[in-house]
Amino acid sequence: xxTKEEIMQWQDQYVLHTYNRDTLLVKxxxxxxxxxxxxxxxxxxxxxxVCSLGHCYPRVTKAIQEQAAKLVHVSNLFINExxxxxxxxxxxxxxxxxxxxxxxxxxxxxGQIKFARKWGSAHGGRYEIIAMDxxxxxxxxxxxAATGRSKYRVGFAPDVExxxxxxxxxxxxxxxLINDKTAAxxxxxxxxxxxxxxxxxxxxxxxxxxxxxxxxxxxxDEVQCGMGRTGKPFAYSHYGIVPDxxxxxxxxxxxxxxxxxxxxxxxGDVLTPGTHASTFGGTPxxxxxxxxxxxxxxxxxxxxNATEQGNYIMSSIANMRSRxxxxxxxxxxGCMIGVxxxxxxxxAVAACRKNNFLVLSAGETVLRLMPPLTMTRAVAxxxxxLLDKSFASL
Length: 394
Ligand SMILES: *Cc1c(COP(=O)(O)O)cnc(C)c1O
Known about the structure:
Elements: H1 4-14, E1 25-29, E2 32-35, E3 40-43, H2 46-49, H3 58-68, H4 82-92, E4 98-102, H5 105-121, E5 128-132, H6 141-145, E6 163-166, H7 171-175, E7 182-187, E8 190-191, E9 197-198, H8 201-214, E10 217-221, E11 245-248, E12 259-263, H9 284-299, H10 302-319, E13 329-333, E14 336-340, H11 345-354, E15 357-358, E16 360-362, E17 366-369, H12 377-392
Parallel strand pairs: 3-15, 5-6, 5-7, 7-10, 10-11
Antiparallel strand pairs: 1-2, 2-3, 4-12, 8-9, 11-12, 13-14, 14-17, 16-17
The structure holds pyridoxal-5'-phosphate (PLP).
The site of pyridoxal-5'-phosphate has 15 residues, from helix 5.
């Protein structure tokens, strides 16, 4: 085994410096992670909403171990037994559609964008996609072009064409952009990176109607807000609408790279053999992890717990507002929680970190909490106490 000093030196010398980071984590269990010096942290980042069941969730660990000894990968030239089973679980927990498997959120969204263009090519040559300001859809060239934060695109011109931007939660701004080239509208039901912004009910209902009236697709990005994060299997079901398609990724494999997009059955023939593919998409190993995640939803009371603890944390933080006037707003859905701290945000994240409490930021001013959906009330209380202590030091 290499020493910590060696690893840090190799990191510096051999790993491309696209991330600013300094902590070496070596172990995780449930809501906690440990660094190389043995320090324990309460982890409310969960790998940015990836290890949503907590670190090394026993059901998932067992599924990975067993599958690793049986069959890890076969190409998509063959059927593997876990892929159709996982597609069925996704369908049963959402809108009964058809699924394509990928490996990352960006790849799932790329596939979804290709789906929209393929659909549009058969519907009068439509190709434009209307995305939202402050959205985030990934770092590949097309998903970057769909991302409503231009700073991520600086230095990577020319942009992939065909994307326009409307204001999130503003139907009129979308309506104004729809023309005979529009294929789809792409929305995160709860914007994550943009600052934990839930869509309004009228917006989602109105958008469904707008898309139906215009004869275009309503596409959702549930890479972050899906897979139980908001207390339902997918966030759209809070709103009583059904999209035409939806991407998912982060928590789908509880840490094993696994992503997908699902289209309604009526769109099941848009992408035909040879039009889209992925070498690693939906391997037996990754799908075994995904199946264990849905088993946890169905058997371990994960979603009910996420709703209960998430609401408890949100209302408890809201109660801190009288003592900490810099808390401007507390918002979110289930265990996707944003606390708007204005210009205190950087200091607050650093203070939490000093108290061995790992949290995220989002947008320019928002503290983002993405706790494990499986946390106990005791863990929620520990987090609230650490947050209180951190706020008190500001
Ligand atoms: C993280 C994220 C992505 C990109 O996922 P990657 O796996 O990093 O490619 C896309 N959309 C949303 C909403 C995300 O939160």
